Amino acid sequence: MPPLTAIERFVERLFERPSARLFRARLQPVQLQRYIERAMEGERLTTSDRTLVPNRYIVHLHPADLAGFGEMTGPLASELADGALSFARAHRYTVVDRPRVDLLADPAIDRADARVEARFAEPIVGRAGHGPVALAPDGGPESEPADPTATMAFAVPRPSSPQAVLRVSDPDGGTREVVVEPGGLTIGRATDNDLVAVDGRVSRHHGRIVGRRGTLVYVDLGSTNGSRVNGVPVAEVVLGVGDRLVVGDTTLIVEVATEPD
């Protein structure tokens, strides 16, 4: 963790925690979002061409604070995950997969406080992912299967590249389906692209979709009019099912994403 991040966290807790206890303030979702954003910033990894951020966040809460969210616990975890994805995209960070948030009841945490573990990890197979989890005897989330490739901070991603099916809506109102093969797909106005866009606002070589570490990644190739995913300008971002990529006046929606055998 960068020293400045650690100092900022110490100062914030120094002022926030006593006042929270004094006024018996209830922990608010926006506070949890800020905890997650700080954890993302604190654990980011910067390389020569991108900044990687964790995709797994475990939020430790006092049991009474967690119980206070009641039936909204599941939706809250999903909203926090969406917020983490939006934060990453706004800062042009790269995530290896869609963020997932788990809320964990932890008696060691003070009331109106929280602690977030941020990890680089693959999705846990067979687990839906957004909701409260129990505290296991060793202090970690219960029912999390052991991964022989995992360390405390990072699980090695599978090298396979996913295939995908895109629904393309052209400016003239026509639609078509395009398959992203394991080798990837280039997008642009020039005829040497895999997906040729009949769109004057699309650059000759606008962007490409590639498989990277088992994820589907869109990369803008320095286009004139830029690229947007779900309304947010992006240079590079991991795509998931349902994401809406807009280049010029052409829209591409990810309908299917599967890993090849």
Report on this structure.
This protein is α+β, with helices and mostly antiparallel strands and 261 residues long. Helices cover 23% and strands 31% of the residues. A six-stranded antiparallel β-sheet has the order 9-8-18-17-14-15. Strands 11-10-12-13-16 form a five-stranded mixed β-sheet, with no helix packed on it. Helix 2 (29-42) packs across helix 4 (73-90). The longest helix has 21 residues, at 3-23. It is elongated and about 60 Å long.
| Order of strands in the sheet with most strands | 9-8-18-17-14-15
Summarize the helix and strand pattern as letters.
HHEEEHHEEEEEEEEEEEEEEE
Work out the helix count.
4
What is the total tally of β strands?
A: 18
Structural class: alpha+beta
Strand content: 25-35%
Largest sheet: 6 strands, antiparallel
- Note the overall shape: elongated
Q: Radius of gyration, Cα only, in angstroms?
A: 21 Å
User: Which stretches are low in confidence, meaning pLDDT under 50 for 5 or more residues running?
Assistant: 1-8, 17-25, 123-161
What is the averaged pLDDT score?
76
DSSP helix fraction: 10-25%
End-to-end Cα distance: 38 Å
Element layout with pairings:
Elements: H1 3-23, H2 29-42, E1 45-46, E2 51-53, E3 56-61, H3 63-68, H4 73-90, E4 94-95, E5 100-105, E6 114-119, E7 131-133, E8 163-169, E9 175-180, E10 185-188, E11 195-196, E12 207-212, E13 215-220, E14 227-229, E15 232-234, E16 236-239, E17 244-247, E18 250-258
Parallel strand pairs: 2-4, 3-5, 5-7, 10-11
Antiparallel strand pairs: 1-2, 3-6, 8-9, 8-18, 10-12, 12-13, 13-16, 14-15, 14-17, 17-18
